[in-house]
Amino acid sequence: xIIKMKRIKKIIxxxxxxxxxxxxxxANMGSVSxxxxxxxxxxxxxxxxxxxxxxxxxILGKDSKSVSIVKSEFNSITPENSxxxxxxxxxxxxxxxxxxxxxxxxxxENDMYIVGHALVWHNQLADxxxxxxDADEIQGYIANHINTVVSRYKGKIDAWxxxxxxxxxxxxxxxxxxxxxxxxxxxxxxxxxxxKADPQADLIYNDYNFYKPKKRAxxxxxxxxxxxxxxxxxxxxxxxxxxLKSPSIDQIEQIILDVHAAGVPVSFTELxxxxxxxxxxxxxxxxxxxxxxFEGDPxxxxxxxxxxxxxxxxxxxxxxxxxxxxxxxxxxxNRVTFWGVMDKHSWLNDWPINGRTNxxxxxxxxxxxxxxxxxxxxxxxxxxx
Length: 385
Fold this sequence. Notes:
Blueprint: H1 16-26, H2 30-33, H3 40-43, E1 49-54, H4 56-59, H5 64-73, E2 76-79, H6 85-88, H7 98-109, E3 113-121, H8 127-130, H9 135-152, E4 159-164, H10 177-182, H11 186-197, E5 202-207, H12 213-229, E6 235-238, E7 241-243, H13 249-261, E8 266-274, H14 309-328, E9 333-338, H15 371-377
Parallel strand pairs: 1-2, 1-9, 2-3, 3-4, 4-5, 5-6, 6-8, 7-8, 8-9
Helix pairs in contact: 1-5, 9-11, 14-15
C-alpha cells in the first residue's frame, strides 16, 4: 500500500471564504452524499488517493456545486491550469500567485493530497520562454521558476509533476525548447532543482500514451537511470485520456506492471473516458493537434443534447473494469485523478475538434452522479474475500 500520511508540518487553517463556500455548497450536494453509503475517496480509502483536477472557477469558489463535490468525493486535487507556467509566471520574473495560493489553501483546509502541475512543459509556456536560444539564459529562468514556485509551497504541496510530456511516441526525447537549448540531461537537472527546493515532496514524471511499448520503454529507461544514479524520482504519472475500448484492460495492466518493475509507483493522473469518435491521425493528448476540418460534422459529435442510455451503460462498464484493475494492483498505485469534476468542464468538449459535446466523467452537466459513478462505487475493494 503506497499511501503517505499528510506531513505534520502542514498548516491547517479555516478562512472566512471557505466557511461561506461550505455553507452555500452543502445544500447542493444532497443528491450525492445522502444517497450513498460512501463517497469515491472513502470507498477506496487505504488503497490509493482519489482525486480530481479543478479549474479556476472551483479554486476561487465561484462554482459552489463543484466545490461541494470536490470536498465530498475526493481526497486529492490537481490544478487544471493555475500552476502552469503561462499563468503563474506570464512575464519574466513576474509571478501571479492568487489562484495558486487559493488552490493550496483549499487542499490544506480539507486535508487533501495536493498536487502541483506542472513545472516544466513545452506547452502552455509563457511567451517569453518560447524564443530563447541561449542555454545559460533558459537554465537561469528554469532554476528561478522552480525555486520560486516550489519553495513557496514547500511542506504544503505533496507532489509535483516536475516534467510533463517530454517524450515522443518512439521513446526518444521530444525536440522541445528545453531539449534544443539544454540537451538530453535537462530532465535530470530539473528533478535535482525540484528536490533541492522541497526535498520532501514527491517528484513525478508525467506523460500520455504509456500503452505504446516504445514510448513506455523510453520513459522507464530514464526512470531506471535516475534510480541507479540516486536522482530522486518518486513515481510516474500516466495520463489516462482513454476511450470506451482503447487501451485494453490488458494493456493498462501491462503499464502498471512495467512501471512497478522500474522501481516506482504509478499514478493515473488525468483519467477521463471519451465517448466520441476521434480522427485516426490523432496522437494521444497532444494539445497542439487541431482538426478544424471536422468542425460541424455530426459524425464527430453524435450526442449534442444527451448521452443515450446504451452509451451510458458502456461508459459505466468501462469505468468499473478499469477500477477493478486498479484495486487488483492497488499496492502499485499511489493516486487516481479524474481530469475534471463534471462533464461541462471537461477539456474534451473542444478537443481535438471545437464545438463537440463529450461525456467523459462521473458527474453530468447538472452536477449529478451518472451511472458510471455508481458503477465505480460497486467495485469490490477487497476482491480476495
